[in-house]
Design brief:
It contains five helices and no strands. By secondary structure, the chain is mostly helical. The protein has one domain. The N and C termini lie far apart (41 Å).
Length: 123
């Protein structure tokens, strides 16, 4: 990939703030907002936005752990298995990331968002 200049700091922090807030409130990890915010709002290439979003989830996770862990709100058994699966799935997904075109990344992301929205709306 060609090196790109860093996005404007204030807009990037704004995308992080909105995605982090939504992630903390809704438990979505923020990526649902990070990727579109980075692509549309900051003009990042699709692949770079996915990579940045995946990396930024660490900050969201640590903040949630610091807040919810001591309050006794975390189901540690579920979290442990979720982290195991997420780690393995992320390794596989990030290896596949470079092999998928930007067009198909956008389509897959949009399809996942639509399916999730429909499932939530229809209950």
């Amino acid at each position: 990939m060609d090196p790109l200049p860093p996005p404007p700091a204030r807009r990037a922090a704004g995308v992080g703030l909105v995605g982090g807030f939504a992630g903390g409130l809704l438990g979505i990890g923020g990526g649902l907002l990070f990727v579109p915010g980075l692509v549309i709002g900051l003009g990042l290439q699709q692949h770079r936005a996915h990579a940045a979003s995946t990396t930024a989830i660490v900050a969201s996770s640590l903040a949630a752990l610091a807040s919810l862990g001591p309050a006794g709100k975390v189901s540690w058994d579920a979290a442990a298995y979720l982290m195991l699966g997420a780690g393995i799935g992320s390794l596989a997904g990030t290896r596949l990331l470079e092999r998928v075109s930007a067009v198909w990344l956008r389509r897959l992301f949009a399809a996942l968002a639509l399916v999730a929205a429909a499932r939530l709306a229809l209950g």
